[in-house]
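Researcher: Good morning. I'm working through a list of sequences from a screen, and I'd like to move beyond sequence-only analysis. For each chain I'm collecting a predicted structure so we can compare shapes side by side. This is the next one on the list. No need for commentary yet; just the structure.
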Amino acid sequence: MASQRRKLGVIGAAAAALVLVVGFAGWWFLLRDDAPEEASIDAAGETLDEAAGGDGGDTGADEDVDAAPAAGVDGEWSVDATLGSFDDFSGTWAGYRVEEELANIGASTAVGRTPDVSGTMTVEGGEVTAVDVEVDMTTLQSDNGQRDGQLAARGLEYERFPTATFTLTSPVALPEDAADAPSLSTRATGDLTIHGVTREVTIDLDAEVTDGSAAVVGQAPVKLTDFDIEAPTGFRVLSIEDDATFEFQIFFTRS
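Model: Good morning. Structure tokens for this chain:
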């Protein structure tokens, strides 16, 4: 009997350990927040450095980088999707960030992004005088294919509204040293169209210019209800906050 009790005790201890391991694995895979980090001008600057063939050190390539911006930033610029990569979000992308509440999981950050961004920017007389950017909403990707599929007919309804656009409505003054400053911060006001609805937004921007290319990163708080977006809740998604963020990292090259 004592031997049998010892065996049962060993089995019980092993079962308890297994429950702990499974429970930890469940927490790790279900409760941890794997949302990608917000865009930063420092990370975008690394992409510019790589494209220019320099690493920020004292190299011949850097001498070329320093020489190029001397002509200033005036001119026509086009979105460049060839710099960086969408796989690690080091290239051009645009998308959304919103907080949601999931059944049996709790609070989670949903982030969807697409590399399919096109458009132009005009800089004249030390001001950004025009920006027109279009985003293909049909190729938005998050970490959950089921979420992406739901957004085709619900929420963003990208089957009905396949594009989002931003058009600058007020010129943005640039500092005199914009061409060779490490980076600059500013704000841009324009018309943002999502879900077929246009609203004026003000976007906080960070930018950097290197060797004929420019990186612009930014984000703007938006309310889903302002764009007539009904949060696509269901059995798994208990709630989605009305306050969301439109965010982007866009690279331009001089045309």
